[in-house]
């Protein structure tokens, strides 16, 4: 709650600065619900970007969700009526929570995952609308607010690093991203790094399969 409300406030303020009010903040957070993409979306809608540009940007920014979904296949397999919404609501913080926390004893796992997803969605919507209202009532410089998403990713990485003893996947992600950053540059490294991480993790997984 603390993380998503704060991040939502940052988004709402940026959206207000771009000339879009609380209704826009509510609708984007309700139907898009993709934190980092919504931050990028502020510049897309304010610059009247084409649909093709928006499509390519969305794929690049949210490519990491491919890894989230693959790793959650077993957990979501028999979720039944909860499954569609849980797939839609699998964001960064929700993934971090569901992949590291244990389901409380006596609680249905799928219902627990559904409620975590739902509450995170509510927190994000509330923060976005609140940020828009704050931006209208208390105008101030929004410089640097977009860094809050980077802070979220860093915090999620640290949380998962501390919660597991096997750091090979994390090191794979760091090394692959750094290599692609050096080779392709900051503007074009995201997709190559995702491809490289997929290949390396697939190879690591095959190496662990017992005959």
Q: Which key phrases capture this entry?
A:
211 residues; mainly alpha; 12 helices; globular
Q: How many domains in all?
A: 2
Residue runs with pLDDT of under 50 for 5 or more positions: none
Helix content: over 70%
User: Main sheet, how many strands, which sense, barrel?
Assistant: none
**SS content category:** mainly alpha
Task: Give Rg in angstroms.
Answer: 18 Å
Strand fraction: under 5%
Give, in order, the helices and strands. Answer: HHHHHHHHHHHH
Q: Can you count the helices?
A: 12
- Overall number of strands: 0
The global form is globular
Task: Report the average pLDDT across residues.
Answer: 84
Distance separating the two termini? 45 Å
Question: Describe it for me?
Answer:
With 211 residues, this protein is mostly helical. It has 2 domains: 2-164, no CATH class; 166-211, no CATH class. It contains 12 helices and no strands. Helix 1 (2-17) packs parallel to helix 3. It is globular.
């Amino acid at each position: 709650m603390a993380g998503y409300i704060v991040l939502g406030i940052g988004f709402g303020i940026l959206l207000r600065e771009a000339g879009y009010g609380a209704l826009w903040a509510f609708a984007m957070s309700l139907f898009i619900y993709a934190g980092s993409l919504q931050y990028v979306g502020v510049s897309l809608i304010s610059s009247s970007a084409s649909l093709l540009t928006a499509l390519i940007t969305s794929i690049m920014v949210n490519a990491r969700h491919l890894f989230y979904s693959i790793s959650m296949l077993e957990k979501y397999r028999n979720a039944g009526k909860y499954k569609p919404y849980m797939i839609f609501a699998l964001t960064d913080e929700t993934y971090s929570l569901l992949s590291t926390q244990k389901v409380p004893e006596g609680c249905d796992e799928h219902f627990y995952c559904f409620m975590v997803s739902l509450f995170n969605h509510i927190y994000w919507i509330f923060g976005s609308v609140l940020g828009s209202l704050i931006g209208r009532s208390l105008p101030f410089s929004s410089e640097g607010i977009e860094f809050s998403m980077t802070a979220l990713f860093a915090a999620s990485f640290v949380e998962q690093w501390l919660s597991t003893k096997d750091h090979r996947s994390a090191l794979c992600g760091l090394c692959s991203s750094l290599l692609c950053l050096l080779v392709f540059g900051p503007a074009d490294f995201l997709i190559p790094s995702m491809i490289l991480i997929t290949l390396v993790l697939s190879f690591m997984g095959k190496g662990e399969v017992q005959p």
